Amino acid sequence: MFWQKDIEMISRRALEELQLKRLKQTVRQAYKNIPFYKEHFSKLHIQPKDITSLKDIRKLPFTTREDLREYYPFGMLAVTKEQVVRLHTSSGTTGKPKAIFFTKKDVDRAAELIARCLIMTGVAKGDVLQNMMTYGLFTGALVMHYGAEKVGVLVIPAGPGNTKRQIALMQDFKTTTLHITPSYALYLATVMQNEGLDPQKDFSLRRAYLGSEPYSEETRKKIEKFFHIDVYNSYGLSEMNGPGVAFECREKNGMHLWEDNFIMEVIDPDTGETKPDGEKGELVLTTLYREAMPILRYRTRDITRILPGKCKCGRTHRRISRIIGRTDDMIIVRGVNIFPQQIERVLMGVKAVAQNYQIVLESYDQMTVRVEIVKELFDGKVDHLVNLRNEITEKIRSEILVRPKVELLEPGTLPVSEGKAIRVIDKRTL
Amino acid sequence: MEQLKQLSIFSENKPGRLTKITKVLAEEGVNILAINIASSDGFGVIRFIVDKCELAAQKLRQKGFTVSLNEVMAIELVDRPGGLFEVSALLSKKKINIENAYVLILGSRKKAFLIVDVNEIEKAKKLLKHENLRFFTVKKRGESKTVQGEKNDLE
After folding, report:
1. How many angstroms separate the CA atoms of A69 and A67, rounded?
2. Model confidence pLDDT, tens digit, residues A54-103
3. 3-state SS class at A133
4. Is A34 helix (H, G, I), strand (E, B) or coil?
5. Nearest 5°: phi and psi at A105?
6. Where are the domains of chain A?
7. Do A410 and B67 touch (CB under 8 A)?
8. What is the mean pLDDT of residues A140-158?
């Protein structure tokens, strides 16, 4: 099913023409209205008229998270304050937040993209979407909310947390669709299990959209199997509207990035060089269809790759792989670059350990991975536990090429998360 | 031979775990007859022989502990030099491999038993069936009552 079939199935050629037209508009708009861009253009000795093909995007300056912070609150706004109708902020752990503004049209356009995503995954009128992301300054919940209303489904603005109430809502209103973080989905599964609930018999769930933190394919399978649902990857970031930037279709093989709204590039994060399709690197996005805040070549810090080839669903918008990691999350131990998701992937493949884990960094050459054993599989034998620990150690070592210290913990020892999970505890000091 | 069950509890190796476990047993009126702790770099398994093992397992699980129950044998050791030798020589003759073993002593040292945890308990029991051995077991009614004395405890 399609929300905007003509644009979702547009020929590559027509899409690229549209992209170029919109890119030129965006560049002019940014140059004219945002001093930050004017300054950078001058430094690089370029002008909007130098953009004559899509490839010319490489001439443009990057925009970083730090730039958005520096020009907080109004410095990146391309319209007058009277024209904006909504503010979202994205907070970092340190320093100033980033301000993201929407005009009325921007709100509507973001909702259109979500509508495409929902219809693409089989949602129809009559579906009930329980939105378990945080409402408020964070874009995750509200942008999804507006898109779902546009499609005409019933939205339950549950927000995260209060798991027993979530379960009651799901049962009382026959929720079919969840919008949830992966770590909260895993926690929800644990609670249902403890309450003796059968996800298949006691609920009407059919699908879930998982986003806002990276997770592995194994985690998806685990969640799909437990709830008996289809899990779709969702990608977005506040700076680019929030959710709805890229989304999986029913093929569940990569996320279609809506290329009529964004130009994507994958670059080498160290050199800034563009990588060919299929190669891993940092995702860089340029908005093509925004009024309040056009952003050129935004460094997302998310590591992914563009999947070469056509998708069976017929959509022509290219796909990106699930987010492999964030350049921020990357940890370096013994000089090796490691993403926590690599460790998660290994743990999901080991039956006798639970979903929750923690990585503790005490020095630059030692990493400890703490995992909980599964209660039901404990048989009282020390040698089985020792073998389990050795198995995990060896599997992680072959994945990341660093031998970790593995600690087996009693179930329930690690903190459970109802939002974004804290997986890495870095005790190192420079 | 009636079944004798051993209670195993997974525990991280840190202060206070044994206290928490034994507190549950004390509150439930479970009497500990023998204990054994095996640890390996960071974690351990604490094993008990108790008078009410099913109740103990249930209560510990309710409190969130990771518990396993498995059958073991308790072979009486004669109280004289060579007592343990005789039993272990017999086990070795029968090619029964011991995974773990510890001792249970009853009635002010009047009787001692070797608790033997083996891989294939049914096979081991069969192999020892016709040997002149005495085994310790907790009587079924012991589930609701503490063990009175060794007279009742022996088959």
Report:
1. 5
2. 999 999 999 998 899 899 999 999 999 999 999 998 865 445 789 999 99
3. coil
4. coil
5. -65, -40
6. 1-328, 331-426
7. no
8. 97
User: Contact, A30 vs A37, CB < 8 A?
Assistant: yes
Structure tokens of A312? 């069976």
Domain ranges within chain B, ordered by starting residue: 4-70, 73-153
Nearest to A379 among B65, B68, B100 (CB): B68
pLDDT-based confidence at B3, cuts 50/70/90? confident
Percent of chain A with pLDDT over 90: 72
Question: What is the overall mean pLDDT for chain A?
Answer: 92
Instruction: Name the 3-class secondary structure at A314.
Output: coil
Phi, psi for residue B125 in degrees, rounded to 5 = -65, -40
Length of chain A: 430
| Interface predicted TM-score (ipTM) | 0.77
Asked, as a colleague might, if the bond just before A73 is cis with ω within 30 of 0, I would say yes
Q: What fold characterizes domain A331-426?
A: GMP Synthetase; Chain A, domain 3 (3.30.300)
At position A229, the amino acid (one-letter code) is I
Characterize the bridge pairing of strands A154-156 and A128-131.
parallel
How far is A381 from chain B, CA to nearest CA, in Å? 8
| Whole-number percent of chain A with pLDDT over 70 | 97
Question: Rounded to an integer, what distance in angstroms lies between the CA atom of residue A312 and that of residue A2?
Answer: 14
Tokens found for residue B86: 């005789």
DSSP for A347-401, written as a single string? HHT-TTEEEEEEEEEEETTEEEEEEEEPGGG--S-HHHHHHHHHHHHHHHHHHHS
Chain A: give the shortest CA distance to residue B11, in Å.
6
Pairing of strands A336-338, A262-267: unpaired
At A19-40, the pLDDT tens digits run: 999 999 999 999 999 999 999 9
A contact residues 80-99, partner B, Cβ 8 Å cutoff:
none
In angstroms, rounded to a whole number, what is the distance separating the alpha carbons of residues B135 and B155? Answer: 7
What pLDDT band is residue B1 in, cutting at 50, 70 and 90?
low
Q: Which residues contact A45 (CB under 8 A, 6 or more apart)?
A: none
At A332, the pLDDT band (50, 70, 90 cuts) reads: confident
Q: Which of A381, A408, A412 sits opposite B43 (nearest CB)?
A: A408
Architecture of the domain spanning A1-328: 3-Layer(aba) Sandwich (3.40)
What is the homologous superfamily of the domain B4-70 according to CATH? VC0802-like (3.30.2130.10)
Q: Are B122 and B140 in contact (CB under 8 A)?
A: no
Report domain B73-153's class.
Answer: alpha beta
Q: What sign does the CA torsion over A99, A104, A105, A109 have? A: positive
Q: Report pLDDT digits (tens) over B98-153.
A: 888 999 887 766 788 888 888 888 888 888 888 888 888 776 544 333 333 333 34
Say if the Cβ atoms of B64 and A380 lie within 8 Å.
Answer: no
